[in-house]
Specification:
mainly alpha
Length: 69
């Protein structure tokens, strides 16, 4: 969802933009573009936080084992 480098290069048509590319394009608009882009950024961070918290509750102590090598 937030893979910025790939999405800025690979997404060429606006209907296929992921949220990171949409935020980048909205920042270019004059007027309300910056505010909408900021709101989308906050939404993306909240979504990721809820997803990580949900995964940690679902997996419990196993979540730490996923990231250990």
């Amino acid at each position: 969802m937030l893979e910025v480098s790939d999405s800025l290069i690979l997404a060429q048509k606006s209907e296929f933009y992921p949220i990171t590319k949409a935020i980048y394009e909205l920042m270019q608009f004059l007027g309300d573009g910056r505010f909408i882009a900021s709101a989308l950024g906050v939404w993306a961070m909240a979504f990721l936080a809820v997803t990580i918290i949900g995964a940690s509750l679902l997996l419990g102590k196993k979540l730490g084992a996923i990231f250990r090598v």
